[in-house]
Amino acid sequence: MSKMCRVTINGRTVEVPAGTLVTDAARAAEIHVPIFCSHQKLPPLGACRICVVEVGTPRLGPDRQPVIGQDGQPEIAWMPKVQTGCTTPVTDGMHVRTESSVAVKARHGVMEFLLVNHPLDCPVCDEGGECQLQDLAFAFGQDFSRMDEAKRTFESEDLGPVVKKEANRCIVCMRCVRYCDEIMGDDALTAHQRGVWTEISSFNRQPLECEQCGNCVEVCPVGALTALPYRFKARPWDLRQHVSICPWCSNGCSVRLGVRGDQVLRARGTEFRGVNQEYLCVRGRFGYEFVNHPERLSAPLIRVDGSLAPSTFDEAVALAATRLRDIAATHGPESVAFLGGEKLFVEEQYLFQKLARAVVGTPHVDARTRLAARVAGDAILRATGGGRPLVTLDDLVEAQEVLVLGEDLQGESPFIQAQLIRGQHQKGLHLTVAHPRRVKLAGPKFRGDWLGYRPGSELALLHGLTRAALEDGGLEGLPEDARDGLVGLEASMGSWTPEQVERATGVPWAAVKAAAQRLRAVTRKAVVFGRALVEHPDAPRLLEALENLGWASGALTRERSAVLYAGPQNDSQGALDTGLVPDLLPGYASWSDADERRRFESSWGVTLPAGAGLSAPEILKAAAEGRVKALWIVGDHWLRSAPDRKLAEAALARAELVIVSELFLTATAGRAHVVFPAASFAEKEGVVVNCERRLQRAVRALNPRRGTHADWQIFQAVAQAMGARWSYRTAEDVHREIARLAPPFHDSSWGALLVGGHAWSSERPFRSATLTPAAPPVAPASADGLALLSGGVLFLQGSLSSHGTLLPKLAKQATARLHPDEAARLGLAAGDRIELEGPEGRIELALALDDTVPIGSVFVPYAYSDVELNRLGAIPGAADRLKVRKAVAMAAV
Amino acid sequence: VSAPRGPLLFKDIDTPGLRAIETYRSLGGYESAKAWTGGKRAPEELIDVVKASGLRGRGGAGFPAGLKWSFVPKDSPKPRYVVCNADESEPGTCKDRELMEKNPHLLLEGILLAAYAIKANTAYIYLRGEFETLQRIVDRAIAEARGAGLLGTSVAGSGWALEIHTHLGAGAYICGEETALLSSLEGYRGQPRLKPPFPAVEGLYACPTVVNNVETLMNVPHIATHGAQWFRQWGTEKSPGTKIFSVSGPVKRPGNYEVPLGMPLATLLEEHCGGMRDGMKIKAVIPGGSSVPLLPASMLATGLDFESMAAAGTLLGSGGVIVIDEQTCIVDALYNITRFYEHESCGKCTPCREGTYWMSEVFERLETGHGRERDIDLLWDVADNIMGKSFCALGDAAAMPVMGAIKHFRDEFEYHVTHKRCRVNRRRAELDAAQAVPA
Questions:
Q1: I want to staple B266 with a disulfide (CB 3.0 to 4.6 A). Which of A521, A671, B300, B320 is the partner?
Q2: Any idea what DSSP says for residue A812?
Q3: ipTM value of the model?
C-alpha cells in the first residue's frame, strides 16, 4: 500500500494515499472543488483552471524539519500563486484553502472567462439542466456580465449521424479529444486553430470515422457536443432515469436510461458508478431503439388453421400448458426440449430450467444455441480456474500483459477493448492479440504483438503456447490436484513440436514462444477468450487446452491475473451459473451427481428425470429427426443461431409444438404454435452476471409494453397451468431461491446488487484443476476453397439491433470481405455481388476488400439479419471450405 | 577592421567568412570541444564548471544553466537529448538570428559541449518557422562539422556519438515555451505540458532533455575554454557574463549589443545606441521583450541584470529593449501588444485564451473612441485574473505589460476615455501621411 498523507482542506483534515490529487482529496473531505477538464480516466491536464486553490506546505527550517509556530502547529508556507487542484498531488502536512478570498477571486475569474465566449443559449441546449457550466454559473450567483463585447462565433457542424457540434459552447477542456485518443484508440477528434479560435472537429472536418460511441458527447461538460439521436427530444428534468444493465454484450455496463412516457429517449453511462462509469459503446448508447419499436409483439399469438392469430395471455398459457402436458404424456417428457435464454436475467434462466426439469420433467435444456459441439457445462468454469477469483475489468487496465485469444473485441466486448487500450496508453500494458485477422487491437497503434494464426488452427496455437510456457520453467503455484497431469501433458507436448505448431498455425515459433514468455514473465496478466473458442467445432478440446495454458502461463495462479471468458451474450455467464445447460444443475451441481440431484429434488419437491440431457446441437439433430417433438425457444432467433439452417428448418417443420417467447415476430417465431410477447430488458427487473462474474441488478426503467410479460412471469404462468405450485411474486423471490440453492450465489443479497453489485468467486474452487494431455496433431484435410472466418461487428449484435434506424445505418450493407490479392486471384472486384457456396448451401452478398483478412479465407460477419451464415453448412474453425464466385445476375435475358 | 562589438559572443562576429568551419577553427573554434571530449575531463566536471560560472538562461527566464543540466538523472536508461531553443519569437528580440547567421559553429560547439555534459547522443535545433535561411546556414555548418569528424559516430575520435538535427517550427509563438516546443518537435500540437515532470527528467519523447536558448549555449564554449572565474569578470555576482540586447525604437543606432550584465539601461541607450534620434524623448522602455512590464523614463538608471530588473517591477526577459518615445500612445502600443498575445494564445487554458481576447476587445473599444470609465479598471482586473492563473507564462506575458502600462500611464488611458482619441499618436500620424501619398 502506498503511504498515507494528512491533508488539511479548509481546516478539515483527511488522510489519503500519497499521490492523490488535491481535487480528489477535497472530494474525500466532502469539499466541492469544481472541475471541467479533469476526468477520472484521463491524466491530469490543468487546462480549464476552474479548480484553482491555495496550497501551502509546512515551512522547513535549516534542519529540514517543519518550523513549529506559536500555536504549536507547523507554520505553513503558502505558494505565491494559486494552484490547480487537479494537477497537484498532495504531500504530507499540505494545507489547502478553497474559500479564501484569493482562491475565490481566482475561481470567479476563471468562471467569468469561461463565459466570455460561451453563448447564453441554455434554453435551446440539450445539456441545459445537467450542464456543469450552467450549475457553476448558478452557484456563483453572478447575475450580470462585465463582458459586453461581441462574442466570437463558429458555424455548427454535424460530425456524422451521432455527434452534433456547437463549437460556440465549447470550453476547450479537451476531454473529448483525449478520451477518443486514449480510451477509444480512435483519434477521430482534434483541435483546429488556436486561442479563442480553437475549434474541436474531425481532422478533415468530414463525418467522424470512428466507433460512433458517443463517449465524446458523454464526457463533454457543456453542450458543445450533443447526440443527434437525442437532440431536442427532452429536457433532462422531464426524464425518469433508471440504471439498467446493458443487454448488448457480456461486459455488464451500467446504462442510465432516460424515459419519458413509454419511450426510452436516451441511454447514458453512470459517470462514477458501475463497471463502465461514463463509458458506453455505440450499441449501449444508441441501441435502445428496439424497446420503443412499433413492431414489437403486443399480444400472444397462437396457431389456428395453420396461421398465427392474436390471442389472450390466459388462452396462450392454457394452450402451451395443455400441449406440453399432452406431448409429455404421449411421448414421454424427454420429447420436450428447452432452448435459449442467454439473454435472460438469472432469475428467468433459473425458472426456465426449473420449468423444464421440475415441471415438464425433461433433462433437455441448453441456453447455448450456437454451439457446434457438445461442450460440458463446466468446461468454461474449469478453463477459468474452477471459480477462483477473476480480475475486475478495472484491474485489467493495470495488467502488464494481456493475451486476447481469437476474439475481435471491438465487436464482442467493446468495453474490454476500451480498458485494454487505456491500459496500453496510460499504464504500459502490453497486448498480444491472437486472431487470423489484424483486428483493431492488433494494429500498430497499440504496439502489441499480433499472432495471425491460420483459421482453424486454434488448437495448435494453444498447444504451442502451452509448450513454450512449460519450456519456460517452473510452474509456481500449480495446485496439487493438477500435478498428476503434468507428466502426461509434458509427454504429450512431444508431438507438438515447434515445427508442427508453425506448420499448423503459420505463426513463427519465435513469436509463439515470445508470447508465452511475456505472459509468464509478468506478475499481472490475463487471457481473454470468448465465442471463437466456445462455438468452435473443436470447443471441448480447445477449452481443455486453454486450461493447460492457464496453469502453465500463471494466468490462473498469480494474484490479480485471470483467464477471462467474454461470453457471446449479456448473460451467458448467468446461464452457466443457473444450470441452463444439460449437465449441470444451478450452481455447478453435476447432473450426474446423485447427492446433488437429491438436494434439488427435495427442494423442488419433484423427482428429476434420470437420463442425461441433450445439448443444443444434439437437440437440433433430435428435433430434426423427430425424436424431440416439442420445443420452447426463448429470446433466440433459432433459425439464425442454430449452427445448421437445414436442420433447424426441419426441426421446426417436424415439431408438434413450438413455443417461442420473443419481442418481435422473427422468422423463428413465425413457425411457432404459441408465441409469447416478452418484455424487454428495460421493462423488467433482474440480475445479470457479466464476464467478471459480477452480479448486477437491472432496475425496471419503464412499464412493460402493453400485452407483454417478463419471461419469468410467462414461465410461472405455464408452470402453474401445468399444476406446479409456484408462487413467486417478484424476481426477488426467485433470486432468494437461487441464492439458497446455488453456492456461487450464497452471498448474494438482492438489496446489494444495484449498480456495481459484486463478483462471485470461491476460494475453494468448484472444480479441481486439471492438466489434460494434448492429443497428437492430425493432418488437416486438404480442400479447395476458402476458409470461413466470422465474427461480430460493432454496430450490430443479435436480431434486436436490426430493429431501429441508427445501428443498421451505421452498420451499412453487409459484405463478405476478401484480401485484395485473393479477390484479384478470383477475378472479383469490390462491390461485386458474390456467391459463397458451402457444403450445404449458398448465400449471396456484396464483396468488400479488406487487407486484414488473410489470404485463403473469406470474412463474413454474422450479425446482419440478411446474412444467414448457417445456410452454408460450414462452421468457422472447421475444415469446411467455401467456393466463392461472382453471383449470376437474376435478371431475365 | 572595426573594433570588436562585444567581449564574448560578438568578439569575432563580424569576421569575414566566419560561417565557414575553417575560419571558425582558425580563431580557436572547436578546440574546447576537442579538449573536453578527448577523454581527460569527465562530463560531470563540465556541469560543475558551468554551474560555477553562474551562467543563466538567456531565453527569458534566467534559470541557471549548469543547475538545469545537473537535474538530468544520472542513472536513467533512456536516451538523453539536448534541444536548442532557436524559436526566437519574442517581439523585440533578434539576437539569436544574428548569432546563428554569422557564427553557426559556435552554436554547434555549445550544443556539442552540452550534449557531452549530459551524455546525449542526439541534439535538435528548433528554429522558428520563418528562419528558413538560417536552417540552410546551420545545416551547412552541421555538414561541415560532420565532415571534419566533429559530429557523427565518433566526435573528434572520442568514440562518443553525436548527431545534431534542425527542425523548423510552424509559426506559433507558444513553441518558444520549452514544453510546447518539445510537443511540437514530437509532431504534436504545440501546447505547453504540465510540469513537473520537468524536461530534464521527462522531456523529448519522455526522455531526459536539456532545453537551452541559442545565446546560452553559445556562452558554453567560452566558459569551457576559459573557466568559470574568467567568465565572472563580466556582469554581477548573481548575473555574471554578458548579454545581447536587441534595441529597437527611435534611437540613433538600433541593433544588437553585447554588454556586461548590470549595465544601467541609460548607458546602453546613450553610449551604445547614441541616444534618441531627431530630438525625441523617451517615454518608456520595455526592457525584455513585449512580455515584460515597461519602465517609465524615470527608471532608466536601473541595471540590466535579472535582480535589478525584478526589483524595478519588470524582467530582463530575452533582452529585447523596445524604446517608446513621447509621441507614441501607450494605449495604442499596448493594444498592439495585446492583439499579438490574443493571436498567439495557444488556447489550452481558459484565462489566457479568453482573457487575451477580452482585453483585446476592450482595447479596441478604447482605441475606437468607445471607451468607458469602467473599462480601465476592467482591463486591470481582467489582466489580474489572468496573472498567475494561466497554464504557462504566456498568460502572464500578456497580463504584465497591460498592468504595467496602467500603473505607470493611467492618465493616457483616461484621456482615451474622455477625449475618445489618443493624446499623442506618432504612429497614426505617420500612417495617415503614408496613406495620403499614393505609392
A1: B300
A2: -
A3: 0.94
